[in-house]
Write a structure and sequence with these properties.
This protein is of the alpha/beta class. It contains nine helices and ten strands. It has an eight-stranded mixed sheet, sandwiched between helices. The chain has a two-stranded parallel ribbon with strand order 1-5. It is globular.
């Protein structure tokens, strides 16, 4: 029995060690291959290259509306793939009369570097500079959109700047809460080095906020989305 217990303890320790060592690979799942471009969805676009303040170069697309714009949407995508997998969503916003800027995080698509939480915040900052300085868009005319992991840079940026509105879809309270839900047998909260703490930041966002979450979401539990909504300051709405 002692031998068995020792064997189990060693095995469990190995699993914990592997989870700690490979947690970035579990969270960040980039793809370098672009499957399509906005042209394939009938949207004329410009390729953009943004320089971050720590020397990375980000690849993205500026997709202007053909007629009078209702504003500009800054799109932060989720943890897997790259910007080419978000064209259907981009098209929806485009059809609403919004210009769209969508950029791959470092290490995703054709962007340089390797993804990290701190790095993605720098990427968000570079996107904001591009819109407000290069494109000369007024902050109050910019809508920040974050989906799933993209809620991390969205809430981080919106808490520091003054966007016109914020849309958060399928966002979580923080990474450890999601990890604990999926890996309840592991001490996730003690192991996690990435946080993306949306719950603590939404109260600092003054802009109107729309939260969108499916009750059937199997990746980010619905209850976590409701917790983020509850922590947010008014004005806010939950769909």
């Amino acid at each position: 029995m002692i031998t068995t217990a020792i064997g189990l303890a060693v095995g469990y320790g190995a699993i914990v060690g592997l989870a700690f060592a490979f947690q970035d690979q579990l969270l960040f799942q980039p793809s370098s291959r672009l499957l399509a471009t906005p042209d394939d969805a009938g949207m004329p676009y410009e390729t953009v290259r943004l320089d971050t303040d720590d020397g990375e170069t980000l690849h993205g697309w500026w997709i202007p509306t053909p007629d009078v714009s209702r504003g500009t949407l800054l799109f932060f995508h989720g943890n897997a793939g790259n910007i080419s997998g978000r064209l259907e969503s981009v098209q929806q916003f485009h059809q609403l009369g919004l210009n769209v800027l969508i950029v791959d995080y470092r290490g995703y698509g054709q962007s340089t570097g390797a993804p990290s939480e701190e790095g993605i915040y720098r990427d968000a900052e570079a996107c904001w500079r591009y819109l407000t300085e290069t494109k000369d868009r007024a902050p109050q005319d910019v809508v920040i959109f974050g989906r799933s992991m993209g809620g991390g840079p969205a809430t981080w940026l919106a808490a520091r700047e003054k966007p016109g509105a914020v849309i958060l879809e399928s966002v979580f309270t923080n990474v450890p809460d999601v990890g604990a839900h999926h890996y309840s047998f592991l001490p996730v909260r003690a192991l996690a080095t990435n946080q993306f703490d949306n719950e603590s930041r939404v109260s600092q966002i003054d802009a109107p906020k729309l939260f969108i979450h499916s009750r059937g979401d199997r990746v980010v539990p619905f209850k976590l989305g409701r917790q983020v909504f509850a922590a947010a300051a008014e004005p806010k709405q939950f769909l």
